[in-house]
Specification:
The chain is mostly beta strands. It is globular and about 35 Å long.
């Protein structure tokens, strides 16, 4: 018998998030499994994601590449901000820590 509580996704990401650093862009989380981001070509690029209590796994699902491996990143919420650490690499993101704020 395990003492760990099973994690249930709760919609915490759903909505539009403005990237404060390192660039000026937005992520639009449309559901519990997909979000989009406009790249420099101004087209919406799709991503799949899943998450648990402290990590998010992201896989590019857009038109640029078809065989991009998913990557997992630490995240945390602080007040109305979301911090995601992409320093280990993720297609479509700089190798940096992203600071986002939820738009109303």
């Amino acid at each position: 018998m395990s003492c760990e509580k099973e994690f249930e996704p709760d919609g915490r990401f759903i909505g539009t998030w403005k990237i404060l650093t390192p660039d000026n862009d937005t992520l639009s989380f449309k559901s519990e499994s997909s979000f989009s981001r406009k790249f420099y070509d101004s087209m919406d690029h799709s991503f799949e994601y899943s998450y648990d209590a402290d990590s998010i796994t992201i896989k590019y699902n857009g038109t640029n590449m078809i065989l991009v491996q998913p990557s997992t990143h630490h995240y945390e919420f602080k007040n109305n901000e979301l911090l995601i650490d992409f320093t280990n690499g993720c297609y479509g993101f700089e190798f940096e820590k992203y600071n986002l704020t939820k738009l109303k």
